[in-house]
Specification:
Blueprint lengths: L1 H22 L3 H22 L2 E7 L13 H12 L7 E5 L6 E5 L5 E5 L2 E10 L8 E9 L3 H23 L3 E5 L12 E5 L13 H15 L2 H7 L4 E7 L6 H12 L2 E4 L8 H9 L5 E5 L35 H9 L9 E7 L7 H4 L6 E4 L5 H12 L7 H8 L6 H10 L5 H41 L1
Parallel strand pairs: 7-10, 9-12, 9-13, 10-11, 11-12
Antiparallel strand pairs: 1-6, 2-3, 4-5, 5-6, 7-8
Family: Belongs to the AAA ATPase family. BCS1 subfamily.
Organism: Urochloa decumbens
GO molecular function: ATP binding
């Protein structure tokens, strides 16, 4: 029986074998063999090498975005700050801050990190994927598969968070200005920037010390208020209205705020913004941790309270509304400040400056939009002492008494006093202060003359009205 089966099966194979070879696909035996065997090979390789890898990839457009952080840069900053001391091969990059260099990991250099008892390895890698034109840069994270939940759920968020902190602490801060947005500007940048190196701080700002401390404490509370704003359900932002005569330090206050918090400044020029829609485009491109400032807002658009008084402003030239360079409305600006679109970012300061607060619409500056109103007034004696320390390096002087008395009688801005101290530089402290006293006396005499002329004019007008009535 066995001999018969063997003979018949051999005969059948001799007959069917050539037919299968002639008509069956040639890859069928190989594919069948490969699929069956590879599963066992893969299982064996996994057993022998239980490591997992995660690539944090650098996107090609990151260099052209104004967004200050992304995962690749955050990992790079973390490794530079935390792990690079264990490396032996570095790549130096310019930081743009004088002669300082930033040392990063060179390609192929591996460094270890420990988190929660797990050891992980980082390595910068460059490769080119199939069909891709550009070389892909990434940081490759390698770890044991048993630590997957810890690494993915806790360690990577920890790295990104610490990396953002390192980027924020070491970056050069920027001053942004908005571009004109056209119909063809989809790929154009809506913001341009220069590096912000303004030297003003609250220590050098000429202002009443008690009021200055109040502002600093408010800024510190805002910076540390993440949990508070989340609990009360409000966007993490705060508004400040700076008002007062020209030369009282409103722009310097903005710089001091930015320097104190370490934020970038976005200077919004409303007159070149065509529509409310363009205003929203600007808003969504503003990064977190920033100061958004609109200077001289009373001069920018029709925001001077005519709506409240029931009046309609007319153009002296007779131009139609369609010819206006900007059609930004009060409603659009209010939505920009605290509407739904304002919640697209966090940790933002909004600052308005004006010389005429009484001209602004009450809806624009109410509490909740402009949370803190700061009056930048004429120079008081304490503010003068700050200027004397800045320009002359003195805290006390016998002539301070005369200056205190004159400042109580004369309205002079900090800018005017600073100019007096600067123009008399090189004469010595005594000569500088004597020159300032002379200027204060001149200002006092002029104020008295102007007051007398005003009284005479008022008396003449009153007499004229009386004669006409008689």
């Amino acid at each position: 029986m066995e001999t018969w089966w063997f003979a018949n099966s051999t005969t059948a194979w001799l007959i069917l074998g050539p037919l299968i070879a002639a008509y069956a696909p040639r890859q069928l035996p190989l594919s069948f063999f490969s699929s069956r065997v590879w599963r066992y090979v893969e299982a064996l390789l996994t057993f022998l090498n239980p490591d997992l890898t995660v690539d944090i990839v650098r996107r090609e457009w990151d260099d052209y975005s104004i967004q200050s952080s992304n995962a690749y840069n955050e990992v790079k900053a973390y490794l530079t700050a935390e792990c690079s001391r264990d490396a032996r091969a570095f790549r130096a990059e310019a930081t743009g801050q004088g002669d300082k260099l930033l040392l990063g990991l060179r390609l192929g250099q591996k460094v270890a990190d420990v988190y929660g008892g797990a050891v992980v390895w980082w390595q910068p890698v460059e490769d080119r994927e199939d069909g891709q034109r550009f070389t892909r840069r990434c940081f490759r994270l390698t770890f044991h598969r048993s630590r997957r939940d810890l690494v993915v759920g806790e360690y990577i968020p920890h790295v990104l968070r610490r990396g953002r902190e390192a980027l924020f602490a070491t970056r050069r801060r920027r001053l942004y200005s908005n571009n004109i947005i056209t119909d063809n500007s989809y790929w154009e940048k809506v913001w341009d920037h220069v590096y912000l190196d303004h030297p003003t701080t609250f220590d050098t700002l000429a202002m009443d010390p008690a009021r200055k401390k109040e502002i600093v404490d408010d800024l510190d509370a805002f910076r540390d208020g993440k949990e508070y704003y989340a609990r009360v359900g409000k966007p993490w932002k705060r508004g400040y209205l700076l008002h007062g005569p020209p030369g009282t330090g409103k722009s310097s206050m903005v710089a001091a705020m930015a320097n104190h918090l370490g934020y970038d400044i976005y200077d919004v020029e409303l007159t070149v913004v065509r529509h409310n829609h363009d205003l929203r485009k600007l808003l969504v491109e503003i990064t977190d941790k920033s100061v958004i400032v609109i200077e001289d807002i009373d001069c920018s658009l029709d925001l001077t309270g005519e709506r409240r008084r029931g009046k309609k402003r007319t153009s002296s030239s007779g131009d139609d509304d369609d010819d206006k360079p900007s059609k930004v409305t009060l409603s659009g600006l209010l939505n920009f400040i605290d509407g739904l679109w304002s919640a697209c970012g966090k940790e933002r300061i909004v600052v308005f400056t004006t010389n005429h607060v009484d001209k602004l619409d009450p809806a624009l500056i109410r509490r909740g939009r402009m949370d803190m109103h700061i009056e930048m007034s004429y120079c008081c004696f304490q503010a003068f002492r700050t200027l004397a320390k800045n320009y002359l390096g003195v805290d006390e002087h016998p002539l301070f008494g005369a200056i205190r008395e004159l400042l109580g009688e004369v309205n002079m801005t900090p800018a005017d006093i600073a100019e007096c101290l600067m123009t008399s530089k090189g004469r010595g402290v005594d000569s500088c202060l004597e020159h300032l006293i002379e200027e204060l006396k001149k200002a006092k005499a002029k104020a008295q003359t102007d007051e007398a002329d005003a009284e005479d004019t008022a008396a003449a007008c009153s007499a004229g009205r009386s004669s006409r009535i008689g």
